[in-house]
Design brief:
By secondary structure, the chain is of the alpha+beta class. It has helices at residues 2-11, 13-54, 59-84, 89-106, 108-123, 164-168, 195-208, 243-261, 281-284, and strands spanning 131-134, 138-145, 149-153, 159-163, 172-174, 180-189, 219-225, 230-239. The protein has three domains: 2-106, Helix Hairpins (Orthogonal Bundle); 125-174, SH3 type barrels (Roll); 180-261, Alpha-Beta Plaits (2-Layer Sandwich), CATH 3.30.70.100. 54% of the residues lie in helices and 18% in strands. Strand 2 (138-145) and strand 3 form a beta hairpin. The radius of gyration is 38 Å and the shape is elongated.
Length: 285
């Protein structure tokens, strides 16, 4: 039966054309919708990215939003093409929705980091090159801010990838945002040391370093009366880039100057008392 039908169609090409023409037209229209829709989606994304650049929106965020917009537009284009072919797009949309829900549930942490990445890029608590501390244990230089994670370089040259969700959930300390930082040193001296002389020496050390700012001026004051020492607080302001070097140089200079000027530093001591047990009565007899 099928062979006979095919033979008739071959012998009468007009019937073949009449039979296939509606399907060919649907296919052509579906392809036209797809390719024209794809071009329109790309054009729309370019317009959005250009508008974001004019608004000085971060390139990472602009690329991300452009990709999301292109994906949504292409979803509409594909569904429209399938509808033109006569395929029930209602069921296809339901399948896509179910798949999106399943993917969203399985990638909750990644999606959370993605949303956190958008927040970081918009509000900018730090920028590339900033020295930051995240929480209580992650400290380094910001190398790259991506949508899902942020890349840091630790001070011992390790590369650290931190999920953005972890960053927004913790306290962020940015050491670079401010142009200056205060060095807080607590110097302990013995109670027998000359207090006024020690304060004068500390001020001389701070004032002799050209990297220490003149305003606010360095200060030295008594911080605490500890059981075994007198604690002095030495405060000096420096540029953020000079903080670590100046702090290390100040500690070294204090140790050398105190030794030279005879200002004693406290040392831990322990008093041990040995008691001899009393002699037993049997031994005395």
């Amino acid at each position: 039966m099928i062979k006979q039908r095919l033979t008739e169609l071959v012998q009468e090409p007009e019937k073949l054309v009449d039979l296939t023409w509606p399907y060919l037209l649907q296919l052509a229209l579906a392809l036209a919708i797809f390719f024209i829709g794809k071009r329109l989606a790309a054009w729309l994304v370019q317009l959005v990215r250009a508008a974001m650049r004019r608004a000085h929106v971060d390139d990472t965020l602009g690329d991300f939003l452009g990709n999301v917009l292109f994906g949504l537009a292409m979803t509409v284009v594909v569904l429209s093409s399938l509808h033109q072919l006569g395929i029930d797009t209602t069921s296809a949309a339901a399948v896509l929705g179910g798949a999106a829900l399943a993917i969203g549930l399985s990638l909750q942490q990644q999606l959370s980091s993605l949303a956190a990445g958008v927040i970081l890029i918009i509000f900018r608590p730090f920028n590339k090159g900033d020295v930051v501390e995240i929480g209580a244990g992650i400290k380094g230089v910001i190398e790259e801010i991506k949508i899902v994670h942020t890349r840091l370089r630790s001070f011992d040259n390790r590369e650290v990838m931190v999920p953005n969700a972890s960053i927004t959930a913790n306290t962020i300390t940015n050491y670079t945002t401010r142009g200056t930082r205060r060095i807080d040193l607590v110097i302990s001296i013995s109670y027998g040391a000359d207090l006024l002389r020690a304060k004068r020496v500390l001020l001389e050390i701070a004032g002799a370093d050209p990297r220490v700012l003149k305003a606010p001026a360095p200060t030295v004051a008594v911080k605490d009366l500890s059981p075994n020492a007198l604690d002095l607080s030495m405060l000096s302001w420096v540029k953020t880039a000079d903080y670590d070097a100046v702090r290390a140089d100040q500690l070294e200079a204090i140790k050398l100057r105190f030794e030279r000027d005879g200002i004693p530093l406290p040392s831990s001591s322990m008093e041990v008392t040995l008691k001899q047990p009393p002699a037993s009565s049997g031994a005395s007899a």
